[in-house]
Amino acid sequence: xxxxxxxxxxxxxxxxxxxxxxxxxxxxxxxxxxxxxxxxxxxxxxxxxxxxxxxxxxxxxxxxxxxxxxxxxxxxxxxxxxxxxxxxxxxxxxxxxxxxxxxxxxxxxxxxxxxxxxxxxxxxxxxxxxxxxxxxxxxxxxxxxxxxxxxxxxxxxxxxxxxxxxxxxxxxxxxxxxxxxxxxxxxxxxxxxxxxxxxxxxxxxxxxxxxxxxxxxxxxxxxxxxxxxxxxxxxxxxxxxxxxxxxxxxxxxxxxxxxxxxxxxxxxxxxxxxxxxxxxxxxxxxxxxxxxxxxxxxxxxxxxxxxxxxxxxxxxxxxxxxxxxxxxxxxxxxxxxxxxxxxxxxxxxxx
Amino acid sequence: xxxxxxxxxxxxxxxxxxxxxxxxxxxxxxxxxxxxxxxxxxxxxxxxxxxxxxxxxxxxxxxxxxxxxxxxxxxxxxxxxxxxxxxxxxxxxxxxxxxxxxxxxxxxxxxxxxxxxxxxxxxxxxxxxxxxxxxxxxxxxxxxxxxxxxxxxxxxxxxxxxxxxxxxxxxxxxxxxxxxxxxxxxxxxxxxxxxxxxxxxxxxxxxxxxxxxxxxxxxxxxxxxxxxxxxxxxxxxxxxxxxxxxxxxxxxxxxxxxxxxxxxxxxxxxxxxxxxxxxxxxxxxxxxxxxxxxxxxxxxxxxxxxxxxxxxxxxxxxxxxxxxxxxxxxxxxxxxxxxxxxxxxxxxxxx
Lengths: 351, 351
Fold this sequence. Notes:
Chain A is 28% helix and 26% strand. The first copy, chain A, is an alpha+beta fold. Chain A folds into three domains: 2-74, Rossmann fold (3-Layer(aba) Sandwich), CATH 3.40.50; 103-163, ATP-grasp fold, A domain (Dna Ligase, domain 1, 2-Layer Sandwich); 169-335, D-amino Acid Aminotransferase, Chain A, domain 1 (2-Layer Sandwich). In chain A, strands 9, 10, 11, 12, 13, 14, 15, 16 and 17 form a nine-stranded antiparallel beta sheet that branches. A four-stranded antiparallel beta sheet of chain A has the order 5-8-6-7, with helices on both faces.
């Protein structure tokens, strides 16, 4: 989708992807089939391109350095990538710029895990410091006694223990910063997850002006704190009383921003390319309310009925095999753009 | 833009184009670089694809036959292509299904031209029967005495003479018909031309419900009359009193339909691919009013200021060389969706 946005703006795109005939390759001028850390491939990419970006935060930091040494503009930059690749560094950075998160502790061994469970209290969520997405590399510790089992479950590797957030709902904000330091913030989305994977986003979310202002302040602090260039997804917990905690940041276009394709004139993909290319940022106002739903695995089989629904915009990724849980497509259901009404606070849910 | 729409729906696209590194190739999976009538290339294309379409009506009819013989679904079909390739056949077909056009006569030599000028009256417009677009292959005959000069100007070849239409304004309607016979019609656009080339389209146009109904009836007759599959552009003259004449039909997506990219959920490109692929047609309602402007030749140099205007959506084609008059890009300026008011009839303009 980034490549498609680039094409609309007149750019030529070359993809580096270890998978032959990748979905992005189908809609791009060229593809280099190689591992993300292949130095020869990175040299070729660096020579072919003026600017490089990524849509996957687990790209090796060394790869970004090689591209920068080759004279490429790489955005987001190595600092944002490094911070987003390590959950302890990420939360430490956020707290250092006065952006609130859930309480957490760095875990290096079973001893430090037991101490952290005693301090943060159970239930708490143990996650690997690095890698892992869509709920992978995570284990809940439901009682003090569960530490050893969770430690084994995540492979006994450097980790983070996060206190459980008794949030009202999960929101996210898609934001962008240009090379000139200009910042653009999209309306908030309200997210639901199933099995650790994003299921739906409703945007613009029903939130009051204070929540919007709070999310915008958070987005601005993070973007400026990282001297960020590009689109970023910021996952938020809305706590009882309305306070927002940051759950996670993604230094890339984000699944909860897919609604912008059919709700905004300039979607998150074009916005990202504008930022990376040094263009002025585009507008972020919504012209429709959109409910985005991911189609996982065999859910793609419903495409025909969905394509026939005039309120549904379908986006199919062209992946060959519908493995269980694999994101195959998403739909954006277009709803009338209602006046925002703050939702009455419901019962707390659990992270 | 057709290829980009295909990509969003999950299709893989192969382009046949005589130009290496064509704009479409930049955003497609593959390209065959060959002439449109190269039989080997057509065989390869036919084997690679389940369905084939074109965005240029001067594709040889024989090429379409070869693809059909190879087992491809080709849409629009050979009949629509044949009718649209010959201006006399086109107007004769339209009149045969009771769709009004300007008065015309088939011209085979200078003698028949002189007789037609005497019968239709000067001024009148002489056009080659085949080929020619954007004002090419045309010559005005301003007085009875101008026949010989015009006949020489168009290369003394089979032609059509068209009476001048004293129209109020130029409108167009983008319409589509699916494989199931379903028909979809977009709101009308109001067009301005400069030097025979489309300059702007404003859509939805300020027209009353009777004009809309008349255009829809015309679109329906033509689509059904040709057993058409795909998107068609129908250029109209609005005459004093409100009667619509068909100026020309284009068996493809049309420049005056580019506004749909930023004014409608399902643009003309996706609509065409839906029809060609046998999908249900998408919705055609406008969520914004759009003024589309073509950027020709060096006008593309204004891209930076245009990209910085939040009301402007810019679409750049990625052509390497900005030859004078060449369509390099277009912009869609987004305006508030006003209630339609029929425009008060102004003075007649000339075709």
